[in-house]
């Protein structure tokens, strides 16, 4: 799927260091992009006397992660102090049990995990302290130096109290000196297992000043910035081999984007980090988790993009090194679904993949957090001493954000991005049926062989006939069926027996099953009537989309319409009862001015929102997992124009457009030139984003130009990858006497040209795709 620099072998010669060059990470002299995990407790496992829960667990978990392609791990270097702090039981044993006193035992645990990671060519990012109480951190230094009294230190502080107290760290010289002594102690370490100095150990990628260091109060900002600069300079003076970063959350950590930029401008800070915590930041709520997720995903991507701009300005890489989301229903049970988390991860991984493929500044993402083989204890919410460590630290509910080794659907998402070629890519529905996943991957594969030819309503009727078993106007010409069959659901929202073109839904279902059984591909559009006023899809009343969004006056009605669409799509079954995969194309031609969802009648944000809502409703509410989602535009001349209403990579599998020939191509080349331009745009965007490019609807009514198929359409696509071209329906003669069809009749001058196109080795019809076994 994506070639990233990931090491797989066993240790031999000393490993190379990760470097930052020209704003990018490099390893072995090649760009280094990675998906990693937070594994903060890794340095504790080797210390446990119970080897099964200790060193054996560590090795098993590292093997598991390596097999999944997750080879960059973020670890806690060591905790400070013992006992409760801020009402929370902190992790133990500490690296620094008393100020200035360091534990050889605790350091040996870190030695062990680094040695084991080195054997597996893995990379560690080590954070050297903590803004938060669960490992002691800054509060412990303040207590040791009597800046905080014992009673305040032990009790559960209010948020304002916590901010006030922690902010004092940056003006406490004794505290900063004690912290720096711990940093120096770690940097001076020689690994007791490998006998290699930490400063010369390439299993370490980077040092982080702390986990989420915040100024906490604006008044502390100046001292905070001075501390960052001094600490980074100190680390650089001791170690020129490793990268240095801050462990920062981003704007939410400083409440000031200018301050975030300023602290990362420092010459000794090699890269930027951000963390994303929707629950902690009030983006979602337990009771409305599912409903909040569309907005959460949008805000998360916007948060990344905002910080990417700073990375571009500073020409330094950016890592999203913490992000997590609870299980469905905010459950801590391993039996609860992770579908919301899976889609959230997919969204972030998709952006990372896009950046990696274009060598952008988003270099890495580390999900929070790997819980491995640990399991929550029934009836016990929080961690206690003696429990197995898990990804959720002591102050959080065990099972809240942790990704366990048994979370198969989540690992399916992760490995789709980490393991590269030889593994199956996932569509935007990460729980898609196996045949849908197979189709998705095979459509990608088929791009190298050619372009499928499709036809709307091909099996239902043609010029001069209707509902004749086995008949097809395409087959009449070529002896072969089209590779792709288009169908339309308009009218299904009203429980009518036939669609807007008069095709009975029962017959349509049977035709879909026939095409699928022969190995063909199914695509379905939906010309929904306007739910606001009951007018047709071609109604142009402005503001309708806003009214069907959540909170809108017609939202409930629109949901009932989606229910009816879902019922039909769910009723499509193969011979063995399996769901038939469908390329679903709602809200098509969205740039046009002829549908109520068109560009003049709703904002870009409204269109994106209803698209995302529709995908999530079909997938998460109705449980349909046989759909690939086709984003469809019609009028664009640039990448930005195509993407203006694009809902995001996590909501579209196919990038497509519609366009029809009207002027005579023999005297007017504008259509040809437009399509050449558009083919180039969607080819480029699809390659960058891992999508399928398609010409979803086209035609030249009655085809009066006898070389239109080969000299216009086919020639325009030359040099570009294109999954399919679908010609519109053969309705026949209209009541006004006008002919309305797009695949030629045998007697038409253009028939020979269509047959010529059929003969091209890279024009794919049903016999061709049947051999490809697209669903296997």
Automatic annotation (TrEMBL):
List the active site. Answer: 589, 697
EC number annotated for this UniProt entry: 3.2.1.78
Q: Name one GO biological process term.
A: polysaccharide catabolic process
How would you classify this enzyme at the top EC level? Answer: hydrolase
Question: Hydrolase: present as a keyword of the record?
Answer: yes
Q: Which InterPro entries match?
A: GH, GH26_dom, Glyco_hydro_26, Glyco_hydro_5, MAN-like
What chemistry does it catalyse, as a reaction equation?
Random hydrolysis of (1->4)-beta-D-mannosidic linkages in mannans, galactomannans and glucomannans
The entry assigns this protein to a family as follows: Belongs to the glycosyl hydrolase 26 family.
Annotated ranges, domain GH26? 434-767
Q: Which UniProt keywords apply?
A: Glycosidase, Hydrolase
* GO MF assignments: mannan endo-1,4-beta-mannosidase activity
Q: Which PROSITE patterns match?
A: GH26
Q: Per its UniProt entry, which superkingdom is the organism in?
A: Bacteria
Say if the entry is tagged with keyword Hydrolase: yes
The entry's protein name is mannan endo-1,4-beta-mannosidase
């Amino acid at each position: 799927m994506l070639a990233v620099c990931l090491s797989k072998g066993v240790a031999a010669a000393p490993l190379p260091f990760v470097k930052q060059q020209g704003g990018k990470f490099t390893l072995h002299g090649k760009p280094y992009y990675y998906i990693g995990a937070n594994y903060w407790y890794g340095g504790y496992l080797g210390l446990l006397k119970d080897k099964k829960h200790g060193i054996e667990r560590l090795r098993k978990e590292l093997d598991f992660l390596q097999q999944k392609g997750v080879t960059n791990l973020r670890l806690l270097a060591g905790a400070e102090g013992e006992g409760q702090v801020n009402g929370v039981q902190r992790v133990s044993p500490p690296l620094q049990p008393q100020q200035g006193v360091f534990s050889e035992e605790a350091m040996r645990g870190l030695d062990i995990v680094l040695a084991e990671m080195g054997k597996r060519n893995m990379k560690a990012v080590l954070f050297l302290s903590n803004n938060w109480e669960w490992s002691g951190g800054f509060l412990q230094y303040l207590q040791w130096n009597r800046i905080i009294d014992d009673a305040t230190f032990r009790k559960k502080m209010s948020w304002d109290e916590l901010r006030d107290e922690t902010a004092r760290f940056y003006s406490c010289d004794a505290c900063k000196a004690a912290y720096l002594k711990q940093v120096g102690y770690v940097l001076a370490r020689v690994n007791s297992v490998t006998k290699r100095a930490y400063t010369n150990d390439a299993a370490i990628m980077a040092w982080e000043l702390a986990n989420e260091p915040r100024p906490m109060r604006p008044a502390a900002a100046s001292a905070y910035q001075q501390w960052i600069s001094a600490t980074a300079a100190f680390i650089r003076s001791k170690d020129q081999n490793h990268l240095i970063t801050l462990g920062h959350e981003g704007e939410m950590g400083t409440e000031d984007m200018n301050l975030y930029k300023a602290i990362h401008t420092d010459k000794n800070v090699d890269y930027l980090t951000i963390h994303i915590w929707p629950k902690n930041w009030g983006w979602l709520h337990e009771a409305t988790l599912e409903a909040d997720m569309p907005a959460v995903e949008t805000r998360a991507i916007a948060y990344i993009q905002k910080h990417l701009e700073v990375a571009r300005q500073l020409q330094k890489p950016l890592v999203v090194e913490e992000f997590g989301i609870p299980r469905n229903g905010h459950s801590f049970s391993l039996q609860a679904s992770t579908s919301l988390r899976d889609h959230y991860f997919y969204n972030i991984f998709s952006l990372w993949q896009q950046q990696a493929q274009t060598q952008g500044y988003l270099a890495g993402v580390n999900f929070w957090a790997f819980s491995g083989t640990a399991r929550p204890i029934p009836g016990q919410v929080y961690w206690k001493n003696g429990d197995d460590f898990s990804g959720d630290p002591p102050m959080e509910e065990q099972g809240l954000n942790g990704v366990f080794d048994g979370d198969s659907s989540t690992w399916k998402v992760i490995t789709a991005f980490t393991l590269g070629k030889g593994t199956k890519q996932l569509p935007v529905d990460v729980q898609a049926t196996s045949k849908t996943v197979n189709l998705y991957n095979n459509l990608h594969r088929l791009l190298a062989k050619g372009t499928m030819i499709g036809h709307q309503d091909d099996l239902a009727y043609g010029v001069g006939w209707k509902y004749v078993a086995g008949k097809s106007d395409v087959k009449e010409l070529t002896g072969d069926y089209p590779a792709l069959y288009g169908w339309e659901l308009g009218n299904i929202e009203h429980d009518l027996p036939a669609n807007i073109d008069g095709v009975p839904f029962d017959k349509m279902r049977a035709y879909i099953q026939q095409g699928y059984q022969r190995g063909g591909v199914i695509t379905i559009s939906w010309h929904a009537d306007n739910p606001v006023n009951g007018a047709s899809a071609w109604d142009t009343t402005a503001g309708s989309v806003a009214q069907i969004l959540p909170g809108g006056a017609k939202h409930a009605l629109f949901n009932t319409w989606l229910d009816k669409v879902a019922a039909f799509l769910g009723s499509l079954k193969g011979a063995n009862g399996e769901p038939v995969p469908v390329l679903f194309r709602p809200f098509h031609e969205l740039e046009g001015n002829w549908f109520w969802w068109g560009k003049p009648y709703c904002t870009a944000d409204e269109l994106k929102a209803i698209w995302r809502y529709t995908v999530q409703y079909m997938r998460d509410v109705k449980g349909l997992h046989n759909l690939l989602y086709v984003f469809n535009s019609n009028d664009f001349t640039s990448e930005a124009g195509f993407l203006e209403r694009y809902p995001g990579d996590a909501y579209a599998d196919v990038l497509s457009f519609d366009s029809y020939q009207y002027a005579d191509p023999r005297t007017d080349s504008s259509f040809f030139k437009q399509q050449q331009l558009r083919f180039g745009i969607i080819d480029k965007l699809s390659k960058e984003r891992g999508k399928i490019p398609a010409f979803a609807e086209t035609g030249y009514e009655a085809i009066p130009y006898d070389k239109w198929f080969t000299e216009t359409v086919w020639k325009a696509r030359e040099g570009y990858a294109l999954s399919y071209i679908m010609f519109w329906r053969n309705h026949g003669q209209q009541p006004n006497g006008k002919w309305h069809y797009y695949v030629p009749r045998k007697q038409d001058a253009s028939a020979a040209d269509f047959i010529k196109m059929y003969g091209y080795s890279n024009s794919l019809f049903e016999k061709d795709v049947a051999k490809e076994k697209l669903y296997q």
